[in-house]
């Protein structure tokens, strides 16, 4: 057998792997490190400029900012086919970031690849496994104890394979990226759907599944369907109670949860300069809720100010030299254009149960009364990766100070989640944290917490109808507390704070009065706060672990009896035949997010153990046959039972199955477990009206067939008791529909067409059984 080094070289050549990371190419004008933590990895603006010039000459037209950054990272700018919404681009991202819940599976897959080190700068961030219960310090200690095995695996795997490790308590991945790694013009991929947060610093930051991260860490060109570009022109300026959050709440109401699918949201116009850098990050972060590939703002003085305050003035100075490549060309074309006048924009609150149900704050009380939504607010929660900046905390504290001056505290329970250790330490030093505590708030750990369902909520019972308001980004049914009757609304931190003081959705801080303890009425004034601290940020505790230069003696242990971690076994290859007589596991009715497919909350502890986490497969999806969640008919026994149990029965008896889904199937989180679990339990295809981008890619990576009805009305032709045969796989080619024969129990049959978006590379993944299997084939 050839020596390992030779196998790696062959793999690199077969997959087009670069021998040196592009960031190592020296800029002719300056040599600036990408971050303080990687002093020998440099920003490659010269290469970006070179590639942009090649593409501009080819296309012979002005370019959007999105196009400059994306096309500037092409593996082959001279030969790459470029057509928005059609061609698949082969890209060279600058870096990879992984949060701890998704990093487990990503690192397990990287270990399976057999490669010795990551090819690009990569980091792991421990933010998802800390449950909000008693308060920051106590919850962090508890999380370290409960998750010791997982944290040790991630720390040692990071050390072994050259990945930086941010320890639990360091903060939320997206805030850490903004503070340390994002910069104008970067192309970054992250294993979390809110990775676009980095667009607030002028980068193209895209959420992906773990298998995509493995490709990039292996040095393989990353594939992305050439995105369309939706322009959002901002005019006027923000003022009063209106905040950056209201921009994306308004846009979500316009585009809905799937209106941005396959597109990058590019904000531009004179109104941009009235928004802080962290405010731009808020807007980009929540762009995930409209299905956008990512969102981005042009480089400006607000970004330069933030870079300087976070110790990266050298990057800001370099960006100034290349600024023409970090803003859109005059006269560039957008596939769609939306205009928002910030001077006319009013504070918004979106929900419940979906982030695109937009209401002006002034009107939500009346709507709630009409719809029968609970008016009393049980809990107000501020923070999260979307809204936990210094400015956000300052504006909330400004509201709190006014209430305290009149002797008031929150009528609702109130929690505060700092975005990072740096934010926590700085708001403690500057008094914001104490003001919020005095109002009745509890400061939670620097982590995701209730935003992702890591909340040990005690004030209600499951099934109790109630309302909460948050500054989070996502409010799907049961997401925050696993209670399907919790009506969750998302808004800005300052509006959350005002509503928590009033205790009701009927309160409009722009017009309504509160009554102080002295009996006098008063109105809250619009909050004002510094976007950045006057003094330097307080970094707080050092929570970063550098990967060692020599990791040859580093061991990564996974116990065969572990209930938290499990080494991966390869999925079976395609047998070369059409898929005959597939059983329908479930026909899903309505919205089916990745939370419905693979729930978070208490299930997060199994994210590194595929078999154990598969016990949550589709437990939140509604079965069209009986209108219930986690109750499907076993086609053999005719008994109804839990979805995972039925899937395991089929797998044990060699019965292959499919899922039938509705619109925008798999929206929400980037979690690839929503693709790994059905593959593990015997699925062969997922057939829907449409898919969310990340989930569709994740399914392909794991050797599944994500297919869509050529005629969406054909969804109604399929019944849970039918069997399906998918034909045309022997001649599986890009753009050619597959044939599906629906076999009804009465003996009749119908034939429909199923579309797909597979390219040649992705077809090879299917044939090999998964993208990882295909990588290993090429390695051999």
TrEMBL record:
Q: In which pathway does it act?
A: Carbohydrate metabolism; tricarboxylic acid cycle; isocitrate from oxaloacetate: step 2/2
Q: Which reaction does it catalyse?
A: citrate = D-threo-isocitrate
**Recorded superkingdom:** Eukaryota
Q: Where in the cell is it found?
A: Mitochondrion
Query: EC number(s) on record?
Result: 4.2.1.3
Return the SUPFAM superfamilies for the record.
Aconitase iron-sulfur domain, LeuD/IlvD-like
**Family the entry assigns:** Belongs to the aconitase/IPM isomerase family.
- What's the protein called, per UniProt? Aconitate hydratase, mitochondrial
The species this protein was found in = Theropithecus gelada (Gelada baboon)
Q: Which gene encodes it?
A: ACO2
């Amino acid at each position: 057998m050839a020596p390992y080094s030779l196998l790696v070289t062959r793999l690199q050549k077969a997959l087009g792997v670069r021998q040196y990371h592009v960031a190592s190419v020296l800029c002719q004008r300056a040599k600036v490190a990408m971050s303080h933590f990687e002093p020998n990895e440099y920003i490659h603006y010269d290469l970006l400029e070179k590639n942009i010039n090649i593409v501009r000459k080819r296309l012979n037209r002005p370019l959007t900012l999105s196009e400059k950054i994306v096309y500037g990272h092409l593996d082959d700018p001279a030969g790459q086919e470029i057509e928005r919404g059609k061609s698949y681009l082969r890209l060279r991202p600058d870096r990879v970031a992984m949060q701890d819940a998704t990093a487990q599976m990503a690192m397990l897959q990287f270990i399976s690849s057999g490669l010795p080190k990551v090819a690009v700068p990569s980091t792991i961030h421990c933010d998802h496994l800390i449950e909000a219960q008693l308060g920051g310090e106590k919850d962090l200690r508890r999380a370290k104890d409960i998750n010791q095995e997982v944290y040790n695996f991630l720390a040692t795997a990071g050390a072994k394979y050259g990945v930086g490790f941010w320890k639990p308590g360091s903060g939320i991945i997206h805030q850490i990226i903004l503070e340390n790694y994002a910069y104008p013009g970067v192309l970054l991929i992250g294993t979390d759907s809110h990775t676009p947060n980095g667009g607030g610093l002028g980068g193209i930051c895209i959420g992906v599944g773990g298998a995509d991260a493995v490709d990039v860490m292996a040095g393989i060109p990353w594939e992305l369907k050439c995105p369309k570009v939706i322009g959002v022109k901002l005019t006027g300026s923000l003022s009063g109670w209106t905040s950056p959050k209201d921009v994306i709440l308004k846009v979500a109401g316009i585009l809905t949860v799937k209106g941005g699918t396959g597109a990058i949201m590019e904000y531009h116009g004179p109104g941009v300069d009235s928004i802080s850098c962290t405010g731009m990050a808020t807007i980009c972060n929540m762009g995930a809720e409209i299905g956008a590939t990512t969102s981005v703002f042009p480089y400006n003085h607000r970004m330069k100010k933030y870079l300087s305050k976070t110790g990266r003035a050298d990057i800001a100075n370099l960006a100034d030299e290349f600024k023409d490549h970090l803003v859109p060309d005059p006269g560039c074309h957008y596939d769609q254009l939306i205009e928002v006048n910030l001077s006319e924009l009013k504070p918004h609150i979106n929900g419940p149960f979906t982030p695109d149900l937009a209401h002006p704050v002034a009107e939500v009380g009346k709507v709630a009364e009409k719809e029968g939504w609970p008016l009393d607010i049980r809990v107000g929660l501020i923070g999260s990766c979307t809204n936990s900046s210094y400015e956000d905390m300052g504006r909330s504290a400004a509201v709190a100070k006014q209430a305290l001056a009149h002797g008031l505290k929150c009528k609702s329970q109130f929690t505060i989640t700092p975005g990072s250790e740096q934010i926590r330490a700085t708001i403690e030093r500057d008094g914001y944290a104490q003001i919020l505590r005095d109002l009745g708030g509890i400061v939670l750990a620097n982590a995701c917490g209730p935003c992702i369902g890591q909340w040990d909520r005690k004030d209600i019972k499951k099934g109790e109808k109630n309302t909460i308001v948050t500054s989070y980004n996502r409010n799907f049914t049961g997401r925050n507390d696993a209670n399907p009757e919790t009506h969750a609304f998302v808004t800005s931190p300052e509006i959350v704070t005002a509503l928590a003081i009033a205790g009701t959705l009927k309160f409009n801080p722009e017009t309504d009065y509160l009554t102080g303890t002295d009996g006098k009425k008063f109105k809250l004034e619009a909050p004002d706060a510094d976007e950045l601290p006057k003094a330097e940020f307080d970094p707080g505790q050092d929570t970063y672990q550098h990967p060692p230069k020599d990791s040859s003696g580093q061991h990564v242990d996974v116990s065969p009896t572990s209930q938290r971690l499990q080494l991966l076994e390869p999925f079976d290859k395609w047998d070369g035949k059409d898929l005959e007589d597939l059983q329908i596991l479930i026909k899903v009715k309505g919205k089916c997010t990745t939370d419905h497919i693979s729930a978070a909350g208490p299930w997060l502890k199994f994210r590194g153990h595929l078999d154990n986490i598969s016990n949550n497969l589709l437990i939140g999806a509604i079965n069209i046959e009986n209108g219930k969640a986690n109750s499907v008919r076993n086609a053999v026994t005719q008994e109804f039972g839990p979805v995972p149990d039925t899937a395991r029965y089929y797998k044990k008896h060699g019965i292959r199955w499919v899922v039938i889904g509705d619109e925008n199937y798999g929206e929400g989180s980037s979690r690839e477990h929503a693709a790994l679990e059905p593959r593990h339990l015997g699925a062969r295809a997922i057939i829907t009206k449409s898919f969310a981008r990340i989930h569709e890619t994740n399914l392909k990576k794991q050797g599944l067939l994500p297919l869509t009805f050529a005629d969406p009305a054909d969804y109604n032709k399929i019944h849970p008791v039918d069997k399906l045969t998918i034909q045309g796989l022997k001649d599986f080619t890009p753009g050619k529909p597959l044939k599906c024969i629906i076999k009804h129990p009465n003996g009749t049959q119908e034939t429909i067409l199923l579309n797909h978006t597979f390219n040649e590379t992705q077809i090879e993944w299917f044939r090999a059984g998964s993208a990882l299997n295909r990588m290993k084939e090429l390695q051999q």
